[in-house]
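Example 3.2
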Amino acid sequence: VIGNIGTCSDTADITIKVTPYPPADAGMNATLCIGFNAQLSAAGGSSYNWSPATYLNNPTIANPLVIQPQADITYTVTVTDTLGCSKAITDIVKIFVIPELHVFAGNDTSIVEDQPLSLPGSGATNYVWNWLPDNLPGWLSSTTVASPTATPQDNITYYVIGTDTHGCKGTDSVNILVYTIDPDMYV
């Protein structure tokens, strides 16, 4: 700027720094099992506002906790910088929720001692299976298949856990009542 008064003049200058709008970053999408929590994490500014506030422990911080969402949900974060730029920048993140896994161990039943019983475990074909108790040698043909053969020597409850590729688990149980009879009565 140049200022003049009569024959006198003077100059001065000022530097104007343009601050870019904050780059909003809502983080990576996440997949979780139903009943679990997810941690959101935003960056790029000094104040944050998450929308919707559903399942969030605090929608006005950079890293709120999503508490046990019951279905897939998309969050939008609005980021504002330290200079209070009026234009807020947004980004989205999606939380995918895997519903409860359906695992079936079979119906409660009874058998005669030493009678083998096929346990009809079922669920998705890609589950990893784990039958419990697994500390009784010979009572189960395998503890890591969907449908093992059981030869229990006493009344027992078997538990099966099916785990999917995301680590989500489903469980079920089956009660088996074992009858002991004398050989001459066996038909």
